[in-house]
Each structure stands twice: as C-alpha cells, then as structure tokens.
Amino acid sequence: MRRFDVAIVGSGLAGLTVALNLADRKKVGIVTKREFLDGASNWAQGGIAAVLAKDDSPEDHIRDTEIAGAGLCNAEVTRYVVERGRQAIEWLIGQGVPFTRDETSDVGYHLTREGGHSHRRVIHAADATGHAVQTTLEAKVKAHPNITVLDHYMAVDLITGPKLGQPERRCHGLYALDENAGRVVTIGAEQVVLATGGAGKVYLYTTNPDTATGDGIAMGWRAGCTVANMEFIQFHPTCLYHPHAKSFLISEAVRGEGGVLRLADGRRFMPAHDQRAELAPRDVVARAIDFEMKKRGLDCVYLDITHKPAAFLKEHFPNIFARCLELGIDITRQPIPVVPAAHYTCGGIQTDKNACTDLAGLYAVGETAHTGLHGANRLASNSLLECLVFGQAAARHILGQQRPNSPTLPQWDESRVTDADEEIVISHNWDELRRFMWDYVGIVRTNKRLQRAQHRIRLLTEEIQEYYSNFRVTADLLDLRNLVATADLIVRSAMLRRESRGLHFSRDYPRQLSVARDTVLQGG
Hints:
The protein is of the alpha/beta class and 524 residues long. The chain has helices at residues 13-22, 58-68, 75-82, 85-95, 129-143, 215-222, 252-256, 282-296, 310-316, 318-326, 382-399, 424-440, 447-470, 475-496; strands at residues 2-9, 28-32, 48-49, 111-112, 122-123, 147-151, 153-160, 171-178, 183-194, 227-228, 233-240, 260-262, 301-304, 336-345, 348-350, 362-364, 369-370, 520-521.
C-alpha cells in the first residue's frame, strides 16, 4: 500500500507540470509505466505555440486554432488557453528550459511557423523541444523532496466509490502493476491525475512511442467517465519512411521553413490539393499524401528541403539531419521519404477548465483529456501549450480542495488466477488489432470498414477479457486491454459521426453538416 496526497499517472509534460506546481504543498507520487523520458512529450520536435511576437495577437492564434479545428473548438476554452500562453512559456524559461535564442527577434528567441499558423509563434529548442523541456523538468522533479517517482509501475484500474460499495462517485486511488516486484500494489490518493498521453499505438504506423496505448482514456472510461471526440485521430503527414526508422517524425517545422512535398519523379503535388499547399493543416496534407500514394501505388512521397543552405539545416534540424544521415539520407542533398502515421488523439476524457473529469477526485490533462481546444483537428504545437495551461489549472484546483475522507482500500485479489500458459495470444491480438485499425479506421473511412473493425473488436474484447479474468496480469496484457478499449471508443465515435469534418473523413458522408457537434460517449 502506497499513499500520496496526489497520484499522477504519467510523466510527460502535463504530469510534470501538475507535480511541480503542487509539490511545495502536497505529497505527490508519479506513476510511470517505463522511464521518465519514454513518453510522447520527450519525442516532440517542433515546439510550443504561444503569442510572443509584437506582430502577433491572441485573436490571430484563436482564429488559426478554430480554422484548423473545423468548427468544433470550444471558443471559451480556446481563448482561455491562448491567453495563458505567454505565462506558460515564461514559467518554462524560469525552470531553465534552453529555448533557441535569436537576438534579432523582438522576443529574444527564435520563433518558427508551422502549418495552419498565420504567424511565426512556435518557440522551440532546435528540433528537440520536447527533450529539452522534459530533461529540464525531470531534474527539478527528481530533486524535490515531496515527489516520489514510481517507474516501471503500470496502472491497472482506478479505485472508485462504487467499486468499494459506496454511493459517492469518487476516485480514491488506483491499482498498479509493480513490474520491479512482479505484483499489483494499491496506491491511495485524495486526488488522481491521468496524464498518460494518447493512443497512437492502436495503429500499425505511428509516430508515438510504445507507451502510447490509451491507458488513461481506457481507465477513465471503465471508471464511468464521459469520453468525447475519439474519432478525431490526427495522422501526421510526414513520418520517415525507412525499414530501420521506427516511428521517427519529420517535424512540421521542415515544411514551415520551406520544405516541399514531391512525387518520386520530382513533381510537386500539394498546390493541386489546397491553395495553402504544404502549409495547409495536417488533415489536408495527410489526406493529399494518402490520395497520391493510393492513386499511384506508391510506398511513400518525398519532402524536399535541399534548396536551403546546408548550414541552416544543420542548425535548425540537427536531430533530423543526424538521424537521416545515419540511414544514408543526406537531407542537404536528397529529399526525405515520408508517409503519414497516426500522431495525436484529439479526443479523450471530457474535462472542464480546471481539468476535472465527471468523476470527483479525478483529473485528466494533456493528450488523455478532451478539453475542447483542438476541435476536429489539432493545430500544430498547441498540444504542449495545452499540457502546460491545464497542468497548472489542475494544480490550482487541487490546492483549493478540502481533504476528503479516505476509506480503507482493499488489496488486489489474485486468489483465483494463475500464470499465463501461453503469451503468444497477446502478441497475436496486438498485431491483428493494429493492422485492422490501420486498414479500416485510418485516414479515409467507410461504413463497411468501420463495421468490419467493430466486429473484430468485439471478438478481441471477449478473448482478452477471458484472458484477463483467468491469468495474472502482465504489462503486455494491460497494454492490449487498454488498446482494445480505446479502439472500441474510436470506432464507436466514428460510426456516430455522419459527416466529414477535420480529421474524420468518410466516403459515405463526404459533406460537412451545417451544425458542429461533439461526439459524446457516456462511461459505464
């Protein structure tokens, strides 16, 4: 039994922001399934969008966000986040994050421009912003006496009032598999924060790390939380296409700095799809690439930035330059082979402006949450901003709460299970799920494809539930259980949306309805 004032599940930017804003007054436990730097925040290349330059304005950032969001952004939430952008960046600078300097700029830092933005407003640390932010905050977290880090702890399920036979719908903690000891432990907390990231690993091709298995979304759903807009999965247009380049993203900023998409014969194709060409929002660019690849039977297309000076590319994209060079691609001389890949989960557990879910004592922040900011398509580099703003909001709200009564929590019961006899079932089901989700619930969808996916999800759910009920839990089994639950939410949501909007494109419903509505699923 471990007990904290606040238990945070996840160690990305959202979770660390909550922890550092609480730790002076609360005893905080951070539960992370791998190591600190194994989440998606550490992989973020581009940067953080915020209104910093004199020629920019909150109104412009709000408008860009709403245009990308295809009519589904919550106007109040969008303004709330954008207007707190400068303060969030100043907080990171105060923590010591080494953003790229530019003394010729009126803000003293280099700002880049990405697809969908009308101004240069993305502050960054070269092309490894997430890593710079994460390593800086990690050092702060590990040095704080009030923060305990439980790494290699895989969250299993939330402990709620109804599960304890109590009438109040309140979260009291969670069960977690301690992989170090090979047993499930009970973690009690007055408040629990879900900050587990997204669900990119539900797809065969993704820019996400292996940790992105929808854990927080699935746990919240099983605990009865409302989930919204899960059909909006953002496919990043430019993932490096190479047999040895697992999940390596070619940043949006490459196109922001003048990169051009070409076919194998050198022809540029984006202007034929959208007047904004390579700087169109991600859904437009991803669909255009998908169209060209399927039409012509191509394995990939090419992102060409060779017209820029070599020194510029090495300075602004050192990690992309180095990784491509390792694989035999010199981006100063050769175009980069790219394909779309699942990148960002725009939906999630529904929250308010304090990051509260509809289960008392439970908060959700970052990619796990649906705040209303992203609408039907996330604007580039708004995600890390959302992590910061709502991480701080969650901390403020938690600090304002009275201490609830903490009931005695039961230990995990393993009396009726045994060790699994064959684990091949897990790896086979994982592979099957990711392949049919890619084929049937990808960039372009149809009713028939969704029905096929739903049928397979039902069969997998039954098989996994039987396995879960009879055998001791393992990290792989928990990942698969959460992936299937998340896939089910994506398919259910997609079947309910009878239009094409933002990231959801249906051949059966190609038009966009005149009224924009969220897809809301009530938890069980």
